[in-house]
Amino acid sequence: MNGDRATLESLSRQYKDSVPEDLREAKSFEWYLDAVYEDPRIARNAHQRVADMFDHYGTDYDEDAGVVEYRMAAEDPLHDGENTFYGREVHESIHEFVNKVKSGARGLGPEKRIKLLLGPVGSGKSHFDWMVRRYFEDYTATDAGRMYTFRWTDLCDVIRDQDPEDDVVTSPMNQDPLVLLPQEQRDGVIERLNEALDAPYTIRNDQTLDPASEFYLDQLLAHYDDDLEAVLNNHVEIVRLVASENKRQCVETFEPKDKKNQDETELTGDVNYSKLAVYGESDPRAFDYSGAFCNANRGLFSGEELLKLQREFLYDFLHASQEQTIKPKNNPRIDIDQVIVGRTNMPEYREKKGDEKMEAFNDRTKRIDFPYVLEYDEEAEIYRKMLRNADVPDMHIEPHALEMAGLFGVLTRVTEPDDSVSLVQKAKAYNGEIDDGDDVDVRKLRESGEERADIAEGMNGVSARFIGDEIAEAIMDSTHRDRSYLSPLSVFSHFEANLENHGSIPEENLDRYYRYLELVREEYKERAIEDVRHALAYDLDEIQRQGEKYMDHVMAYIDDDTVEDELTGREQDPDETFLRSVEEKLDIPEDRKDDFRQEVSNWVSRRARDGTSFDPQDNDRLRRALERKLWEDKKHNINFSALVSANELDDDERSAWIDALIEQGYSPEGAKEVLEFAGAEVAKSELEG
């Protein structure tokens, strides 16, 4: 390495270090037997290997949600976090997918089913499928995920009509070398493997050789008088098998073509016309193992937009999933071993769901709902990821811009609640914004949402893709205007202007979505005013003093005691007017005041036992209440109309307010905008009041 410059030598060394040491090394069958006796996991089937892959990259248990989060999805260690997934619902779906694969690994049935990812457009199901394939490729290149196949060698020495070009033939289906053993001998080996195996599953393999390999084995056994050892020693080499979608090796994707041009040979393979003249039509060597199911063997088959296929074309999936075989036209059946994953959007699923002729196919699928994110803070992380992966280094994203964009998306996705909470309150509850005193049961909200939804909550609405596109447009618009910041107001404007122009949004939903956008504007207005309130009226010493006064009066109230008056020094009853002036800032009703006071009292007592002094900054609800009271006390001395115009304010005073907003994460220009926006809104409400 020369400084920071990579030389050809260093690049070559880095590459060599990245590939398995035995990638190019041919081994004997005897070596393979020793290897699997030492590490039985080498002989895993596809479901078992994929199941172990998810655990290999690490897991975390979310105790609150009761969901295992797989780090390959939650952190994306292979790509430095570029493809992380966010949202409780999405990780629940991934957890469900992995559980089905793990059930299949144990032979409980899902190994004979298609794992069908169902979700709306832009929900991330395709991206998750893509990530599984990328990680499978990487996993098979590691020692923990290694697998092997075999190749036939020196065939022309024995088989007279063998084409010299086919003197060395790699297993067309990339089969496990154990398949070379007759079933009785193979069962004995597998029994020993399972005795040494430390895993929640057992090794199984009752596959037959692919037709071409079976032909070669028969010919060679006849030549060596059924001496299997001679055949395997003289004509079989064991080679490392690393999955690669680009090479169509153990990973394959299948995309539906024009219905008129669909051909089952795309899935199951076809005659190799270049070999017909050499071997003849009925010879198994004249078959081309290039079908998607053939290429996916030992790994992953991914079917894109699966339900767009013709019904007749889907019948091939019945054998592939249930029987774990394929039957090419005019050829013997071929055993397959793969995890079959399908993806489909909502319209195709609804169309096929009620089709009685699709009953057999539906019965062979395991549906995994892949909904939109329903927590707007998590949704905002999707947009942050988008911006991290893009070239926008000079654009400052103002507070609330991405969260409010996410809130709009979530409002379009959740079902309307009953009258106990508003739609925005429901979205906040899903986001974890529930105060201890709030009478909101999130579990019941979710259960009710699922009952009210068509298929499941989060399966309809505006996609993160649409919102991300509008954020991108708003950024470019800001750039053209020489603005170095992106504000929520700019994002709202782009939403409003482009909702009607987006083809994925049904026209009958537009009025409702515009109404939701107004709800988001109102929520942002409250947050903007809160930020400006914090900047204009924030006084740490005063909040501490008011907090201590509040706690003195609360403790006296609870203990039915008196408190000393600050001015006269005389003992007096707790000041109920003062206590309520604080509590009303959190909308705590009269009949809930005792609960809140006891809650705060318990919090102070716990801190005292731990030796921690009282600080209202450490209690979010109390801090907000005191800030709002301080605001109410001071706002009559603030000229809100003057905030809209820089010319009417003292420069030093305005600079101090802008500095306070900058400390909250605003850019200088964004601080000016929110100051003017909030000032105008408060001035308007003051006039209306």
Automatic annotation (TrEMBL):
Taxonomic classification: Archaea, Methanobacteriati, Methanobacteriota, Stenosarchaea group, Halobacteria
Keywords of the record: Kinase, Transferase
Cross-referenced Pfam families: AAA_PrkA, PrkA
UniProt-recorded name of the protein: Putative serine protein kinase, PrkA
Domain of life, source organism: Archaea
Gene Ontology terms for molecular function: protein kinase activity
Domain called PrkA AAA: residue spans: 27-421
